[in-house]
Amino acid sequence: MAPKISPLAPGDFPWMPAIPGVRLATTNCGIRYKGRDDLMVALLDPGTTVAGVVTRSLTASAPVHWCKKHLPGGSARAIVVNSGNSNAFTGKAGEAFVQATVEAAAKLAGCEAGEVFVASTGVIGQPIPTDAIASNLPGLSNAFDADGWFPAAKAIMTTDTFAKGSTRTARIGDTTVTINGFAKGSGMIAPDMATMLGFVFTDAAIAAPVLQKLLSDASEKSFNRITVDGDTSTSDTVLVCATGKAGNKPITKAGDKHLADFRTALEEVLIDLARQIVQDGEGATKFVTIRVEGAASDKAAKRIALTIANSPLVKTAVAGEDANWGRIVMAVGKAGEKADRDKLRISAGGVLIAADGMEVPGYDETPVVAHMKGQYIDFLVELGIGEGAATVWTCDLTHGYIDINGSYRS
Amino acid sequence: MAPKISPLAPGDFPWMPAIPGVRLATTNCGIRYKGRDDLMVALLDPGTTVAGVVTRSLTASAPVHWCKKHLPGGSARAIVVNSGNSNAFTGKAGEAFVQATVEAAAKLAGCEAGEVFVASTGVIGQPIPTDAIASNLPGLSNAFDADGWFPAAKAIMTTDTFAKGSTRTARIGDTTVTINGFAKGSGMIAPDMATMLGFVFTDAAIAAPVLQKLLSDASEKSFNRITVDGDTSTSDTVLVCATGKAGNKPITKAGDKHLADFRTALEEVLIDLARQIVQDGEGATKFVTIRVEGAASDKAAKRIALTIANSPLVKTAVAGEDANWGRIVMAVGKAGEKADRDKLRISAGGVLIAADGMEVPGYDETPVVAHMKGQYIDFLVELGIGEGAATVWTCDLTHGYIDINGSYRS
Prior knowledge:
Chain A is built from ten helices and 16 strands.
């Protein structure tokens, strides 16, 4: 049965221009899926810098370990990603698979193995034949295409119901640069079949340490602000590659004032991709924006917002179109950050529901009920304590989630 | 529609003997429910000591605030509990309701207001008429009964599908003492309609500070080891009252060697009640025991066990009868405690599934599949790092949970 496309899916995959120095190819290498591509390879011209953020999981996959080891090198010539098997908890066999893959990709790209980056997404704990990817790489040599963004985004999907892409341009000095990204993810993690992966490419010339700072900051405002089920993948990986072909004066300092527009555009691409992952949340029927203001710090605001966003009771209430603000009070109370019952204000869809330690006198639920029936739900939680603020995105918890994750693997 | 009784419910409510110095009464005071009692009052003879543990929520209810304020007094003469409304986030009106209730109960019991303890469970944020309980208390004066345990346990139920009680005897020196407890709770919290409350009574003579130490220790091994959905109530309250009528030499020191048997019996009562709460977990069809061994510390073991127990992906896999050990690897990885992929061992139903960083060679899933089809599921996670161990109990996450919590309040 083909999966139904999420009711929250945006329109078509965006048109994305070529990025000089980036070529893409996909194929089926038979790891799990039949009748669709499950391998994506990006080739990058010499001189491409790279930055990455990976899962904090202590049981991270072999590909994650490889990326962590080689990201400090700062140079990338190839990215190899497969779907259908995460190569996590696969022991020495998993490490041998990574080694065989990067060696074959290095030969294809004409580079060092340490300039190849890998990511895998899918079932945990199932060994992959060592040469499953390596044996397929030589045959790809004529398949690379500067316009292959949509097939690339599709090849890395697992339980995703739509391909996720985003593109922006930015000015660095007098030069226009392009940023293209694609991502996959459906449960924040569903380790059987999903994980969050993101790959971003730009023709800007930016030194690797600067790119790393930009990515770390932007991830904090995007991928680290979404949750579907609060679970953490063993494979989460986001890579940004900068080919330098746009011809801007190379940026070597994170504080360079010419970076302002690029920083904003990168943030926009990452937030767009992050929101699309939530829009494809397993079983999601509603997209929920949780804004927390007036917390003791931004960090406290984020923790409170994520506690609300991860509460099964809040998420099931949204699924039931119930503006059950008592559950938000509960979540604020359990977040462990400073809160004062009598200063807390809770609004939904712009309507103040509770303040001064109780329901607002004469509260009329009618507009809130109407808001809860929509697809995009907004909660505002004001703590009245400090200046800390954060926005987090999540989806509702529905029967669909149980169906997807409660069914047997095979 | 009357709720179906949980498939995990134990047999009948246990027979519980009278505890000298404790009398119970119940009635309907019309706060929410019709056709059933929603108020439980316990009267305690002079000289009764009390200890309590309450929610750590920072948005705790007015009754919780009252208990926290008066528990240090160490003396209890009455406990008043209502179901149907939690009196949480009800502002000054909620405080006035507590004040009116404790004053009326103090008059009934012939004691100080500070010797009356209160708990409320049910909807958050709905004011209760100030005298809803107070006006009903005088009429109860002839209704108290030393054998009213089952009606008492029923009167405090909300979404619970069965009444929860437990009884044990213990020896203190040459004296046999009795411990009776009853509890309610169905979601670890479903703040609409549920919360975890527990009331325990003994005829032992134990000073309040000693009782507090015993309760805190035993709660850590019982109520703090269960989770249904990881949410935390604004109202959770457990009280233990000791009437001293058994005639044992009063215990005034926590280190008293005569306490060993009582400590064990109290732990057993609390664990029994805690397990019954999980057995009545909203939508639960399977009872899951998660044992973590070999962690860096007991605290680390508990955190890892709770992370596994709270993972929606683990819980939906159990619902789907899928021994999806990859999701346990994922949960161990996200717990944030020390773990080593290559030392981790995972077993289900006594069968070792994964070790040495991968699935056990030749792993035969047959006995594990059979185990997962049962009602009682056991996972053992061995970290191989230290001596820390902990056991946690939870239930599966099913469509029933979504049905119960996704339906509109009214």
